[in-house]
Each structure stands twice: as C-alpha cells, then as structure tokens.
Amino acid sequence: MNNLPKVKIGIVAVSRDCFPESLSVNRRKALVEAYKAKYDAEDIYECPICIVESEIHMVQALEDIKNAGCNALCVYLGNFGPEIAETLLAKHFDGPAMFIAASEETQNDLVGGRGDAYCGMLNASYNLKLRNIKAYIPEYPVGTAAECADMINEFVPIARAIVGLKDLKIISFGPRPLNFLACNAPIKQLYNLGVEIEENSELDLFEAFNKHAGDERIPAKVKEMEEELGAGNQKPEILSKLAQYELTLLDWVEAHKGYRKYVAIAGKCWPAFQTQFGFVPCYVNSRLTGMGIPVSCEVDIYGCLSEFIGTAVSNDIVTLLDINNTVPDDMYEESIKGKFDYTHQDTFMGFHCGNTNSKKLAFCSMKNQMIMARSLPVEVTNGTLEGDIVPGEITFYRLQSTADCKLRAYIAHGEVLPVATRSFGGIGVFAIPEMGRFYRHVLIEGNYPHHGAVMFGHYGKALYEVFKYIGVELDEIGFNQPKGMLYKSENPFA
Asked: What is the pTM of this model?
C-alpha cells in the first residue's frame, strides 16, 4: 500500500506543576517500553525534551515532535495535567490528536505516587470542548502502561485515515451515467474534509489513452496480468488494451496529483466507455485498488472516498459493491438455514461487474461483461473480473454527503458466507445481523445509494471513531441495531 501515510505518533507527557514531574517522566518511559515490546516501534516517538507544565513547554514539545516527523499526537496525562497547556498542544498540532491518562500502579504508593490523572482527564475534555478542538479519546481512556499502549495502537488506523484525507486528491472522469442520480456528489463536504477533487471529461482520458498506444511498457504489464489471472485469463486478446489503460491511469495520477500525496479515482465505465475504448475497465480498476489506489465505478465520488478511508483503516484491499439482490428461497433453505445463525432477511447478495481485486476472490476469470453484452457487441464488453468473493468477516459501510451537503454514514459488521453464488460478476452471499431492519431504516430511510464499500474484517470500532473525528454527527452514523433497539423511524407496533 504505497498510497497511504505512515503514521508516526509523538507521545508528549504532561504534568501539573504541583505534582511531582517524575510521575509523568517514569510513566511515559513505561508506556513507551510497553508499546515497543508489543507493537512496531516506528509507530511512536517519545518527546524527551520536556514534560509539558506550561505554555512555553508546549511550544518546545510541538517543535520537537514536528522536527521528528510526527503526523499524529498522543497527549499523555502522567498526572492531573495542566488543562490549558495540554489542550493547546492539540490545538496547535497540525494533525490528529488523542488524549489518554495513567492509572495508579499500587496501593503501596498512594501518597507521593498518586497522580490523579483520572480526574485530570475530565478537565482536559472540558477544555477541548471549550476551545472547539477535535481529539480522539478512547472508550475508557485511563490505564496502565500496557493498556495505554493498546489504546495508542488502536489510534494508528484512525490517525492514518485522518492524515490521509488531509492530503487526498480524488480524480474523477466524466459525469455520472444517466439515471445515476443516487450517486450524487455535492463537493462542498470534500473541501470541508480537506480533500481536493479534480473533475475531468472522459474525452480527456480517451485522448491520454490513445497517446499511450504502443507504449514500450505494455508487454511487461501484460505479463503481470497473465501471471495474476493464470487459468482465469479467458480473454487474452484484450490484455494489451487493458495494460495500455492501466498505464494511462497510473501516468495520469503521477502527472495530476499536484501537491497532494494520496490519490483515489472515480472512473466512468459506461455507457460510451466500452464502445469508444473497446473494453470495460473493471479488471484494471481492481488492480489499481490492489495497489492501494481505490477506484470506484460509475463516477461514484463518495464511494471512492469511502474506499480510501477503508483502505487506510484496514491497511488492506477494499471493494465497492451494489447492495444488489436477495438470496433465493431455495438457496437459503439449502445452504444457509440451520447452518448459520441468520434469518433469510439477514442475507443479501453483494455484486459488481468485476472491480473486486483477485486477492479478494475465491476464484476468478477475466471475461466479458454480461449485462452490457445484452445490448452491445460482445467484443467491446471484455475486461471484467468475475468470481465469488472470499468468505469471512466484513465491514459494510459508506460515507455520503446528502443533497443538502450534510455528512452521513453507516457501518455494519457481517460476513461473506461460504455459499456458492451460482451467478456472475464479482459477487458474494452476505449476511449482516438484522439486515432487513438496517436496509429499511438506515439505507432506505437515510437515502443512501446502492453502492456500499467493503472492508475484509471487522473494523467498525476504528471506522466509527474516524467518522466522529471528521465531523459526522453521532445521530447520522447508522448501524445495524440489535433486536429491541428501535430505529427512530421504526414502527414499535410492527
């Protein structure tokens, strides 16, 4: 994943001047040792120059962690802490910040060795709110050195997503296809998030593609594709064009990222794409996503943004799927009922033409796009990657700006079941607890489009904190609520 930031968290310990400074010094050292014993030492930097007790110390600490290349901050209350100086640390630091506090170590040292950081965390949170400063505070932010080390490690993916958004450019090609108003993308919220967007015509892309005809790198790209597809290479005649297109996109990214460090693409894939380019871009989209450059289809800008966030949180390949069709009764009865603890309404099939990376498919074949081939010559619909999505845990989610430019999001944990789909495209049988109610009272009631992003694993805890941090209102983050917990729009008598 070379399209993501490397997070380096500067750990700055603070101390109220009426408490022994040694409390914060020793506790900071113990915290750093605990982190390095369990996690990647390169994730953190211990600020050694001072324990922050004043505004002057705060400036010194900020300069030190800036010079050390830190892009995230951990304010560590070794004792009660100076509520002004410690919150100014977060205010003046250019990056995501978290606050944690030390618990007391032993009953045998509750006089000179008592730090009262449990109390200090309350004042820190109060001052953060007074100053309108954003900061991540864990669910229970007070702990031993080992527990605080775990908290910092949980902050790493959250910080990676937030840092990445501030340096992200989304490159889009073409307006949405006709009848795709559902994927509307008011761009005001992109700017509010710090995301840049470059909107291009697909004609510009077509010109760039034609200029790559005969590119000397094409044979090497074709070989890469052949090795990846193996026996699934059902359309070898189209590989040179797909390689040409992949090189076009990669060169466009390098030429157009500007001062931004990270890029995602919202691509156009129909209706004129296939007749003019002579193929469909699904397989290439899947390969770029596998490189850490998420690509959404149908110019779904917020789908693309969601994919990038998921890539940053999971540090893994993601995909974007249609919340597509129901599981047939006979499939549920034969393959799911009695074998898995899901009702029929908990299940559905997630599908897209073929943009899911081969590493996330149980098997794959590169074929023609069946839906498009119903109305077009088959030879211009080649280039889609088909196969059943790998079984296992997933997080289904999306961040969206509504028509009136309000951020809204949803998150649901579930799994892809090990059930043969007997269908086409990149597709899987999904199961999410209480999906029927979630579908009605979050997806429909919240006016979400049919595209949902998928992380391969359960990452809801970190993702929820990312959405909170970037400004999604808590009542605008939907989730699959358990039985007995009514949605606002749910009829209590139903």
From this structure: 0.95
